[in-house]
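New to this. Please check this protein:
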Amino acid sequence: MGKRRSIRRQFTITFIAVVAGTIALCILANLLLLRPYYMAMKQSAVRDAYRSVNEAVVKGEIASSEFDVKLSQIGAKYDIRLLVLDAESQTIKASMEDNGRMARLLWNNILGIREPGTHIEIIEKTSNYTLQIESYEKTSTEYLTCWGYLDNGNMFLIESAVDSVNESALISIRFLIVAGLIAMALGVLFILILAKRMTRPITDLTALSEDMKSLHFDAKYEGDAGNELDLLGENMNELSATLETTISDLKTANNELLRDIARKEEIDEERREFLSNVSHELKTPIALIQGYAEGLAEGIIDDEESRREYCRVIMDEAGKMNRMIRQLLTLSHLESGEDKVSFARFDIVELIRNYLRSARLLIEKAGCNVRMEEYPPCEVWADEFLVEEVLQNYVTNALHHLDGERVMEIRITKREERVRVSVFNTGEPIPEESIGHIWEKFYKVDKARTREYGGSGIGLSIVRAIMESMHRDYGVINYDNGVEFWFEL
């Protein structure tokens, strides 16, 4: 789409162009047509004067007072001077008292004498008269002259000055320019006001259509143009309301449909993944239980010690399956939102110390050196039971992956209005390719080691579900000598 142009600007530019064009045409007409038009009018006036004089001579009225009045009117109106001579060069009629110059000009024309610096341009020549323009270089003047013979044989000369037409044209042009510029300035001001009034409803309608194009239907047309634009604006308001309702209904239906489809796909995928993982996790303990149970049933074990060992393995594997099923149930409740989060204020320092006391036997069995500073009481706002579940999973995970100095350090750090609890254990860092997957169900970084301590790969996914249900951050940080898991409250 090309660059848009403002209607108001187009109105203004068009007006300026029309006015400037009109002024230019007037100036051009003055320059090119004023003199020809003026000369044509002068020639017509001189011919009329000739016919009037000739008619007066024929009727014998040239010496009458009526002709004198008529001659004065013609002279005053068209700036015409007249001289009529008889064959003896006696003046029959003259429109001025000093007619010596005109008598000399008449005889010069009749005898074909040209004074120096005089230029003659013949316009019309008949058997009775010659119409010509006489230019005088010395005085820079021009005259339209008509000389010849009347019907009674008298000689005549009619003269009219034409040199003032050029100055008149220049004066007219200057006036046109000044008047045109003033008219243009006033016209531009007027057209700007008029264009603003005329284009305001169009601008409002354009803005309304832009909002509608962007699916924003709050704007409404409120113009008062008093013409068809108001009707168009009312129709667009109704269209906007209809579109808003229709699109809102469509969006609602579409969102529900997309949500249902996404949820269905998610449930299907989760079901497939769950069945696959559970089948994989239960396959080994069930096989062990079945094998050892068959051995006991068939009586292949004779001594009491071996029977006890078989029973211990069966109970251990059954216990692992029981723990995994309980974890799965816990995770299922968390992810489905069936377990409501109960927020309350409690001392996180006290909760950690109480849990460490309850887990003392596990810590000693793992040969772990627990480090935790003496922190002052620190109240947080969260679900105490779920926070303890997160802490338990972090501590259990740390105990199972202890190595090196076999140190587990618990830190509490205040960050503005948040408190970060971190559990660090010495050992091997988590491989970078596994960092993004450790929160997934059944994911195991070291499957052999996880199998060794009976892990199911569900603990960290429970942490993720708990922290997301409380809308709080959590994460893991690798160090050269170990791993730190953290959560914030």
The chain has a mean pLDDT of 79. Residues 7-170 form a domain with the Beta-Lactamase fold (CATH 3.30.450).
